[in-house]
Here is the input.
Amino acid sequence: MADPWYANGIRFKCTQCGVCCHAKGELAYVYVNQEERRRIAGALEKTLEEFASEYIAMDGRFYLLKFKDGKCIFLNEDNSCRVQEVKPTQCLTFPFHHDFMQDEESYEKYVRSYCPGSKDETAPLHDLKEISEQSNENAVAKFIHLSETEEFPV
Here is the structure.
């Protein structure tokens, strides 16, 4: 098996600019699985029903955080995350999402084209092992989300 295109690592450092929390074309969603919904609801001291009503949108059978004015509902004016301590895996593993890492063209389109932290040549070098772990964690979280069948009020 050939090494992935990022075998020599990728430089990245989050600049906390909040750009990744804004809609970008067809990318205007954050998947949240059952455990993530429970954690965030608890941190906000909301019942699951209250949390779902205020913060969750449904797209078919997918549970998504709502976006308002083109940005994640939890993005504060200062670009901080209102749920930083319990934010979803999709947010935690950025920019090393499984879908973005399939090929260099995807990474360019969905990360380098807008994220300043991906363009900094002095940023820390993330090695193959770390990138693969985060990419796999993102893929597993997405799989769990896709396999859920629970009833959840929205």
